[in-house]
Amino acid sequence: MRFGYFDDKNREYVITTPKTPYPWINYLGSENFFALVSHRAGGYCFYRDARLRRLMRYRYNNVPTDMGGRYFYINDGGDVWNPSFAPTKAALDSFECRHGLGYTRITGERKGVRASLLMFVPPGHTAEVHELRIKNTTAGPKNLKVFSFIEWCLWNAYDDMTNYQRNFSTGEVEIERGGSTIYHKTEYRERRDHYAFYNVNAEVAGFDTDRETFFGLYNDWSAPDVALKGASSKSVASGWSPIASHGLDVDLAPGEEKTFVFTLGYVEVPRADKWEKPGIINKKPAHALIEKFSTTEQVAAAMKGLSDHWSRLLSNYSVESTDEKLNRMVNIWNPYQCMVTFNMSRSASYFETGIGRGMGFRDSNQDLLGFVHLVPERARERIIDIASTQFPDGSAYHQYQPLTKRGNNDVGSGFNDDPLWLIFGVAAYIRETGDYGILDEQVPFDNDPKTKTSLFEHLKRSFNYTLNNLGPHGLPLIGRADWNDCLNLNCFSETPDESFQTTGNRTGRTAESVFIAGMFVGVAPDYAFLAEKLGFTDEAKKARGESAKMNDTILKHGWDGEWFLRAYDFFGNKVGSKENKESQIFIEPQGFCVMAGVGVEGGQAKKALDSVKERLDTKYGIVLNNTPYSEYHVELGEISSYPPGYKENAGIFCHNNPWVIIAETMIGRGDRAFDYWKKIAPAYLEEQSEVHRLEPYVYAQMIAGKDAVRHGEAKNSWLTGTAAWNFVAISQYLLGVRPDFDGLRVHPCMGGEVGKFTVTRKCRGAEYRINVKNSGKGAAPKLTVDGKAITGDLVPYAKPGATVIVDCEV
Ligand code: GLC
Ligand code: GLC
Q1: What is the mean pLDDT of the chain?
Q2: Does residue 363 have its Cβ closer than 6 Å to ligand 1?
Q3: What would the pLDDT profile of 116-163 be if each residue is shown by its tens digit?
Q4: What is the pLDDT of residues 741-762, one digit of tens each?
Q5: Cβ of 365 below 6 Å from ligand 2
Q6: Is the pLDDT of residue 775 over 70?
Q7: CA-based nearest residue to 565, from 551, 547, 552, 578
Q8: Cα–Cα distance between 737 and 739 in angstroms, integer?
Q9: How far is the CA of 810 from the centre of ligand 1 (A)?
Q10: pTM (2 decimals)?
Q11: Closest residue (by CA) to atom 7 of ligand 1?
């Protein structure tokens, strides 16, 4: 069942009912100021850090779900409703929510009044702009009382929802221009030098800033006193819960439409200029921001800017084919999600509260893979930030905080896959840009300026960290966990509330990861190439040697007969082996070892992938392991804490499905690879939205596996490494256009279902138009470049400004 449709021309998903199976959301903002907005106008915004600088209060896990947002109450002769349906839930004669790239437009109509609310963050600014159009579609005049509403968060979102003994006394506001501008200045008197405001570009009939007055203490969201009465109370908050509400008197002749522009902004004021007079905040920066967006023309110009911005970004990779679902994933939604994950890491979504995790070392490096072609300069900056949190021995803080860019001590280090991801990230950046200069960039360890050394030295420590931490079989030690955060082989936790990752680490150097071994072999050629490039021939030679050795070790100690083992546990027992009672096979080493080329020649790769097909594949995607653990195993950790079929215990992790997809292309099985991809690519799941439940335009982290009670149901949409890896899989391996160090590799492998297609790729200043005639046989492609046949699949990079025509038959 569908709850909307794709409007590809406008790059929008159009939701046609407020009653989707879950709130379907969008993100606004792209630099420092971000917002989440659901199809019912729920959500919140923040400046840079969703925990420490939150502007709007939002209630997670509430009844009803999705409470807190930008609400407009319309009182039409006593009939009170919202164009966003929530919170009154008054029936609408028509409803539509268009989620576009960086904006959302919600339109609701009731009894002859149509109200349309456009929300976006203008690029480069720290504000949400809300443009509200209200139209009288009847033949008679209308007098409407319209009330805006937002609730302020007292900045620190965690403190805001826990520390009421203090917070009920700190709230402060100021009111200006008769109530058209409402300022939120809680804690400004002391250590803060920022405040927020909510402005409307019109005279108001009244305003409110005190929540209790606006609603009435015992009313719920659907029945605020002020909206029911049809008149604002001009309340001035003092402590408790400050809000901002404008009261507008709107007279509309038959057919008439009026437009109001609201600005919900954030400003910082230099310490010395904080006050206009004692106790009165300096409003100059707010006025400047308000003036930029106070007319519909300014709004239209900013929207045009936003749209052009996205057209530019998306033109770096696009495909034209006969499969419209493929086109919309590749051209619009997957890169869009990659941008969002790059910006947010795993901080703020409808499944991540914005107060928990910072930026992950592993996560951020992987996010780069799908983002780097959009804005390489920002990827460069991110790489330096990440590398600056590394330790001198090559290990890394698992997470760092975006405001301070410091490593997070609570989580610490010891996730032994982390260091290698840095090499993946840097290699992807250099492939895209050719900027080898980044390797000479001086980067500190643990943010200590005294320890600055070249970025290449960081890569070297990463690489050698693995070599310095090998276990009894010569495989890499796993540490607290590898990619699978929940495979905790050194943490025997028997006490509730302990972290599975950070408590009770066994010190023994025994538990080993075949997955990290695969990563090591996978990344070694890139590392060796870069070392060579800088003239470190010995290091390059050593890397190649060690990689060959690891390859042999995997085949010797990491091969189980029909698939790759997952690990050895603390006691030296096998994990993911046919010797085990449960969970004989795991997805991660099959994907990563084959991607690295392990066993491709000897036939193990094919066997391993056939085992994946046989044991892990389901109609909704490939599960992580099979069979699930049916009871808790203290020596395995969090993985066995989940009921069967959910999360890491045999859920479908959409993040590592693309590893298998890429692996299938490595052995030329494009048909199977494309089939796997279609099972998890959201546009193909639109018709099953009642089962899947989450947005049909973005990937979710997990879909419940075949052993789950609710097989096929997705959770945790938006912020997941799934976005980057699937973009890599579809764009670089199935469609087969990927930047390499010395040229653009063109090697499609996606089976015969999509016959002809054209990929347009901009890279290093030139544009490549690649016309593919695809028989689906998976054989080596035949290429001509500007009419001349070449051997191999590498199209040399052209001069900036050039347009190169590539014809490819495969
Ligand atoms: C989550 C984490 C990621 C981890 C994965 C598997 O997506 O963000 O770092 O690799 O779960 O446990
Ligand atoms: C990852 C896993 C999650 C686990 C968390 C712990 O996000 O997906 O299940 O609880 O890591 O760090």
Answers
A1: 97
A2: yes
A3: 999 999 999 999 999 999 999 999 999 999 999 999 999 999 999 999
A4: 999 999 999 999 999 999 999 9
A5: no
A6: yes
A7: 578
A8: 7
A9: 36
A10: 0.97
A11: 720
